[in-house]
Amino acid sequence: MPHLARIDLYPFKSLDGVTVRSANILASGALEHDREYACFDRQGKVVNGKRFAQIHQLRSQFSNDYQTLTLQAPNTNPQTFHIDQERGALEAWLSEFFQLDIQVQQNSALGFPDDTDSPGPTLISTATLEAVADWYDDLTVTELRRRLRTNLEIGGVPAFWEDQLFADADHLVQFQIGSVVLEGVNPCQRCIVPTRDSQSGVATPKFQKTFLQNRKQTLPDWVNPARFNHFYRLAVNTRTPQGQDSVLTQGDEVILQGLVEA
């Protein structure tokens, strides 16, 4: 039976994730506490893994109430900051690490998703992670999970099952996880981040070339090829119908409902 096997939040954009048993869906469709914080430079550009490979070397840990953040750079002792009360000290620490003037911003209503048109949780199946990890000689499922940074993981299904959760550009695929209704939008376009080791930032040789070749070969026959202008796409972007305020819980059943107009 398709079910929600895992939930991962990334409270601070581009930093380490947090595995939780349940997560709230906000009115915006985003997961509460996911990408709630982010670093910005003085030009207002986000400081993330796409732009700065050294961010992979930062280890981070949030308190259970998401109020304090512990950071550790290579060869240093961990430092803990209350994000609101010690914002200046946190920004100074991050500015020293990046050698940039850093500002920390918070958005509790939407977070800072890459795709603001589809701010719902990203979704992939456990079997897909296992299949893609097998494309590489020394890539584990755990490491691939850290690289892809997907929110929801579906168990009890075959590899690439989630590719049925999007249709053509004029339609969304509606499905339900527990009491939460979600709409699959499109296959997620990957960036440079999955090509790098999640702990060191060192690039994996020929990662993207290997990915493109295998993704094309394993694409299910029933998938709409028009949604793939290239094959460096994996996982599904989602949104939620307006007005929802509900909870996703590990173990919830996943039920397909059908197409709706985009």
TrEMBL record:
Residues 87-257 form the MOSC domain. PROSITE patterns: MOSC. SUPFAM superfamilies: MOSC N-terminal domain-like, PK beta-barrel domain-like. InterPro entries: MoCF_Sase_C, MOCOS_middle, Pyrv_Knase-like_insert_dom_sf. Pfam families: MOSC, MOSC_N. Coiled coil: none annotated. GO terms for molecular function: catalytic activity; molybdenum ion binding; pyridoxal phosphate binding. This is MOSC domain containing protein.
